[in-house]
Design brief:
The chain is of the alpha+beta class. The chain folds into 2 domains: about 180 residues, no CATH class; about 80 residues, no CATH class. It has 13 helices and 4 strands. The protein has a 4-stranded antiparallel beta sheet.
Length: about 325
């Protein structure tokens, strides 16, 4: 062997040593999410499963939005009820009612803790009775009681006995309503509505778990040969489960975001309808899609992805331990 051949071999060896010392770049988290799945799903890119997760996410977002909207509306309603009282003055004729209303106004204006008083006109009071008696019938056939709306401080709201006594002495036909019964009923109804909406949310998450379990088992059955080869080359059950978990997380993220966007559009249309006519004058809660509501609802896709991916991982581990 010539000296030239020896020098070329030494050069090749040096190049090989340098190549061996170069570390392979570690894949980033983003590249791991983008690469092709190790265990392909049935369908083009898991489209059927993505669509199902999108529907589940849509329902979950609506359920969670109901919980938040009911909580906000109930807080607003109860806060208004807790800060207001109503004084009603009855009488045999209009003159007696007017005299009683004037006496009640003097008592209220001289009471410490009264922030604001407003005596409703007879026309306004008659409008409150129109849904039951018809237009114009209340003023024509009845002596409509006078109604005074009063805003009070929390201290006065907690102790109205003295004010009741003073009103009864000044105007015998006066009665005071602190809305305690309405407050109790409204709070009970709000708690029941929130419990129902949260129960729907839990049911939807349970459906996500069931679908993820079925899809993971179907994927393993469809890719039985690939799983066997992976085991032959030394892949552990944890490695295979992690690959399935990554795949389900990607599919869950796509579907959950699609469901979130669709639900936000539906909530925006519902909010617009309530503000512009449909239910604008009813007892339906008002809400706006934005700010805190969107921030809270963004947590729903994350929960959906976590539930889907974790369920798939646990299902795969259990199935592999039973079959392999």
């Amino acid at each position: 062997m010539s000296e030239r051949d020896v020098s070329e071999m030494q050069g090749f060896a040096a190049v090989d040593d340098e190549a061996a010392n170069i570390e392979a770049p570690k894949p980033s988290a983003f590249s791991r999410l983008r690469r092709e799945p190790l265990l392909p799903e049935a369908g083009a890119g898991g489209a059927p499963l993505t669509a199902v997760i999108a529907v589940i996410s849509f329902l979950a977002v609506l359920a969670m939005a109901s919980v938040l909207i009911i909580n906000q509306s109930a807080s607003n309603w109860t806060r208004e009820l807790r800060s207001e009282i109503t004084v009603q003055i009855k009488g045999a004729d209009a003159a007696e009612i007017a005299a009683g209303a004037s006496a009640a106004m003097r008592v209220l204006e001289g009471t410490e803790g009264v922030i604001e008083t407003r005596l409703k006109s007879s026309e306004e009071t008659a409008e409150l009775l129109e849904p039951w008696l018809g237009r114009g019938n209340a003023a024509a056939f009845l002596n409509i009681p006078a109604i005074i709306e009063v805003k009070v401080t929390p201290a006065l709201q907690d102790n109205l006995d003295l004010l009741r006594t003073r009103l009864a002495a000044a105007a015998p036909g006066a009665s005071l309503d602190d809305h305690a019964q309405w407050h109790s009923r409204l709070a009970t109804a709000a708690r029941s509505g929130q419990a129902l909406a949260f129960a729907v949310f839990l049911i939807v998450m349970g459906a996500a778990c069931a679908i993820s379990t079925f899809a993971a088992r179907a994927g393993l059955a469809a890719n039985h040969d690939i799983v066997s080869v992976l085991h032959l080359v030394g892949a552990t059950d944890d490695f295979i489960a992690a690959e399935v978990q990554r795949r389900f997380f990607v599919l869950g993220l796509r579907g959950a975001l699609a469901g979130l966007v669709t639900a936000l559009i539906a909530l925006t249309l519902a909010s617009f309808a309530l503000r512009t006519g449909v239910g604008a004058n009813s007892f339906l809660p008002r809400f706006a899609v934005g700010g805190w509501l969107i921030l809270w609802l963004f947590a729903v896709p994350l929960v959906t992805c976590f539930v889907t991916a974790l369920t798939a991982r646990l299902t795969v581990l259990k199935t592999l331990r039973e079959q392999y």
